[in-house]
Amino acid sequence: MHGVCEDNLMFKLAEKHNLLRMDMERCAMGDLYYESFDLEHVHVRGGRILSKAIVETAGKIHQKIGLKAQRYFQSVDGKVSGKEATSMEDFFNREADAELSKLNLSPEEAKDVEAALFGCFKNILTGYTGGEMSNCRFEMFGAAEELPGGDLELPVEIIDALAKEVPEDAVKLNKKVTKIDWTDKDSIKVVCQQEYEADFVICTLPIGVLQRFHEQLFQPPLPEWKVKAIDQTGPGANGKYFVEWGKPWRSANDHPILIAWTREEMGSISLPQDWTRGVLEISAEDPASSLMLVWVTGDCAQAADTLDDETVSGNFTTLRLFFENDSNGFLQVKKDIGELLRAFVGDPTIPDPDHLTRTRWTQDEFSLGSYSCAKLIADETTFETNGKPLPNSKNPRLLFAGEATHPSLWSFLHGARASGIREAERILTQLKK
Q: Which domain covers residue 1, as residue numbers?
């Protein structure tokens, strides 16, 4: 949960169901702040660990760049349409080079700071941005409001809490919607294996799904202004790959391994084979086992999701999640992760992971992305327009919710919840007329 405060509707939900405890894992800051990360375990190729002072120097530059980008949107009062678009990639490179030029370091130290900044923190910022920074608009970065209070890891029971908010008999599972017909002025038809008729429909399909299927899904077609906003929104690309070894290779699985590629390596990525260059961290998920989590961002995450599955034996013993598991295994991805660890930990004896459970959000036909981002063609109206009802606000029958429809909380889970409540309240208001 991002933003531990009363303004966060996920915080309020967790509070309502007594899911908050003092011993819960928490980061008091957030991804834009370098102190949120383990600065003592940043590895370069060959296994050398960068000094904390070097990583702090790079981290302070990362923080300065991220906060400057975040504050820009407010500095122009949210008016970015008509302005020439700058990518987050160009903004980061320009600001990073300017900051690096101010440092008084030896050539070796300068090289290490550059690796930490461009090969580690830049991947962190890519993950926060939501998609590849070369495709995301700097001027819109701060349009997604960062709530105060830092981050909090909620228990899985939050899913049960969400379910309790919906009547059990109202949920229809395994019903793939193939058509939403809003032709009739008095009702809407939703077609799956059978046909449902409703006074109102709230569409919460992810942006990636809308982009690919809107032409065949809606009858009549969505108006041009709605399609334009959808196309201005990036579907996002981030991946979480859980890995586990049958025989632990670490003496203690109690700290993460952060990866710092050289600037040259980050500037010459060939996909899909170089997908691990989008890995920012391999975090330790369970001290009592060998379970770790590989975080991969941007185009590299999308490329990794496309890698073919190979058949190997395996039985994932520690983790059971609603992700694609490795009953058949993923040989290529496991080999790549093993090679990454051997290269950056500096230990040629580290084996490939035995088990892999991964999200494939960019390839899943029901998501086709992770969380939304602002493409280069986005402006301050994009996310608000995503949420506008049809045929119009005076007669809202086909409504839209989801994080990508919130004008100031897009990309966040609490933004998704807020948008759903917004549309429910819109319907209630309409029914009172």
A: 1-22+154-167
- Domain of 388, CATH number, reads 3.50.50.60
- Tokens standing for residue 172: 């229809």
Does residue 54 share a domain with residue 14? no
Alpha-carbon distance 55 to 33, whole Å? 13
Kindly report the number of other CB atoms within 10 A of residue 205's CB atom.
Answer: 20
pLDDT tens by residue, the chain, 433 residues? 888 889 999 999 999 999 988 777 766 667 888 888 999 999 999 999 999 999 999 999 999 999 999 999 999 999 998 789 999 999 999 999 999 999 999 999 999 999 999 999 999 999 999 999 999 999 999 999 989 888 888 888 999 998 888 888 888 889 999 999 999 988 999 999 899 999 999 999 999 999 999 999 999 999 999 999 999 999 999 999 999 999 999 998 889 999 999 999 999 999 999 999 999 999 998 888 899 999 999 999 999 999 865 422 233 333 333 344 544 336 889 999 999 999 999 999 999 999 999 889 999 999 999 999 999 999 999 999 999 999 999 999 999 999 999 999 999 999 999 999 999 999 999 999 8
Tally of domains within the chain = 3
Nearest to 242 by CA among 342, 178, 316: 316
Tokens representing 102 are: 């101010």
**DSSP string for residues in 200-249:** -EEE---HHHHHHHHHHHEESPPPHHHHHHHHHEE---EEEEEEE-SS--
Greatest CA separation found in the chain?
73
Can you tell me whether residue 151 is helix, strand or coil? strand
The DSSP element (H or E) to which 338 belongs, if any, is helix 331-345
For the chain, what percentages of helix, strand and coil (3-state, to nearest 5) are there?
40, 15, 45
Residues in contact with 158: Cβ distance below 8 Å, sequence separation at least 6, in sequence order: 10, 13, 14, 17, 19
The set of residues, in sequence order, having a beta carbon less than 8 Å from that of 180 and lying 6+ positions away, is 188, 189, 190, 191, 201, 203, 217, 218, 219, 398
